[in-house]
Design a protein that fits this description.
The structure holds 2 protein chains of 2 kinds. By secondary structure, chain A is an alpha+beta fold. Chain A has 13 helices and 14 strands. In chain A, the strands form 5 sheets. A 4-stranded mixed sheet of chain A has the order 8-7-6-11. In chain A, strands 1-2-3 form a 3-stranded antiparallel sheet, with helices on one face. In chain A, strands 12-13-14 form a 3-stranded antiparallel sheet. In chain A, helix 2 (about 55-60) runs antiparallel to helix 3. By secondary structure, chain B is an alpha/beta fold. Chain B contains 10 helices and 4 strands. Chain B has a 4-stranded parallel sheet. Chain B is globular, with a radius of gyration of 19 Å. The chains are: A alpha+beta, B alpha/beta. Chains A and B meet through helix 1, helix 2, helix 4, helix 5 and helix 6 of A and helix 1, helix 2, helix 5 and helix 9 of B.
Chain lengths: ~425, ~250
Amino acid sequence: MSTNMNINVHYVTRVEGHGNIVVNIKDGKIEDCKWEVIEAPRFFEGFIRGVHYKDVSEIVSRICGICSIGHTTASIRATEDAFGYKPTEQTLTLRKLLLDGETLQSHILHTYFLAAPDFLGAKSVFAIIPTHLEVAKMALRLKRIANDLCDLIGGRTIHPIREVVGGFTKLPTEKELRELKKVLETEALPLLDKTVDVFASLAPKIPNFTRETEYLGLVRDDEYAFYDGDLGSTDAGRTDVHNYKSWTNEYVVPHSSAKWTKNKRESLMVGALARFNLNAKLLHPKAKAAAEKLGLKPINYNPFMNNIAQVIESVHAVEDAIIQIDKLLTKGIKDEKVDPMPLKEGRGVGAVEVPRGILIHDYTYDRTGHIVEANCIIPTNQNCANIEYDMKKFVPEIMDKPQEEVQLLLEMLVRAYDPCISCSVHLVKVNFK
Amino acid sequence: MKPRVAFFDFASCEGCQLAVVNLENELLDLVSHIDIVNFREAMTEASDDYDIAFIEGSVTREYDIPRLKKIRENAKLVVPIGACACTGGVNFRKNFYDLNEIRHYVYGDSAKYFDTFATRPVKAVIPVDFEIPGCPINAKEFLSVVKSLLIGKKPELPNYSVCVECKLAGNVCMYDKGETCLGPVTRAGCGAWCPSNGSGCEGCRGLVDEPNKNSAKDILVKAGLSVEDAMQKFKIFAGYFEEVKK
């Protein structure tokens, strides 16, 4: 057994943003075990004040490159909620389709490019290109398909252009949608079948670690919620998203520039595993079959299985995208213009499931349509406490292994959460009593 | 020998590095011509021995300055990528508010934990060799810059406005559609990305040299914006420019 260990991973790699792992063990006793977030704060909630509603989503989209579609969607929903505006059926369908594209794009990026190298004993995806060229090509093709979807519906994958408050500035043609559907059916689904096999073969390498925690996410009775729904919890039932503050109690710890949250327990988890634990019975059929093949059943308390839940959700996202495209094609694309907002004073909340978990934007507008107050709750913030409590339980279970292995396992644990640290840091607002 | 390339990031959304990762169709080709030796978002190995440093993100704290100077010492060529690195990006908006007030608005009594100073672009701290503007960068432009650098040619940015590319794309002018657009004063190179998708240019690539800002402001007001909202438009991405600051 290693009686002394000093792990200081300054910048965990293959995650979005800057975070450190610090573990000190002296004479077999754990003296320090921390997840530090050291990203530079950017103050979005501060500098969004005074901005006109038409410019808001474009600015807050820049919180995160990877989940910019999610931020745009949450922002738009908060603004429309504040003005009491209900989007058209076509707009709703297009937004759901766009979120499916982002989910697929982000999950493929994480599972193949960021997480899989650990399971293959490599340091990066570039290192596995020569040894696993076919797998690399498969991953690249899937990611390209997801990005093509986002480009078609959003105008751009990173910081979408067409998706705005009140509708879409440009619509896809029916021909483009038919072509996209064909690619999803004939290429994406078969590639995902193979992906499920790839990850089923890696599954024995997933560390066997569990810690019971609370899972939070959007829930609906009729679908696996991404676009909207109530706030749901494995411990606390469900509530309207406007009550989010009583569930995402934020607090500050000195070693993190990301704020932490807790509800019923010392920590909570959001993201693919949380959604799966809450909503698995509402997955589309092929995703359900994938879950069975991969051996994931709700409730699963192993955070490493978040990678597997992402694979399952990738299948679900493609099935869902095909359903949304069919809906659009059946009704035909109508040439709808972007609706202006009926301006009034008020507050609106938009909650959306983004790849890393539930994202909430909350704005207060004045009667001229300018923001006076803004608050955003970011998925990675909600996971920070859970990551550290996992580390505290995990380290004693693995500390008899060599230091290098302990360090790798801890990095894999952090990576399993697919943290998006840029996001989490720039957008935390503390409400002090 | 293949040139050794490194990617670094400061305050940003990391979307410009993602734009590079999103070059799925070209990525295998790209890595056959360059050695990526430092790219924290995508790889664990890291080396200080590199020829070209691409830098994403704006400079927002003391801690960033020695890090940037070290990159300048190590690299033969330093190329900031994206609006944040070139002009401060949306992060520059912070500079229009009282720094202390905005810190406390976001972090309350814990503001003391969050080191920050007025946002600045990379070139305000170290000399740079070339810049790729845009929010996010256009991956095609990134590839063409890499190609130029590989053959030892200095890449060039267009010094005409987005309107030129917008006309070439055959778009109806946003102003004719009753929308607002910063295309007339914004540096081209994106292929009029936003107007081609039905949305007015937000000016993410920064102003052209000698822009006629007052005239641009007048047409914004004519299109229905208040003078304040027209100025806000410039402050989304172009706050760093002297023409907007004053």
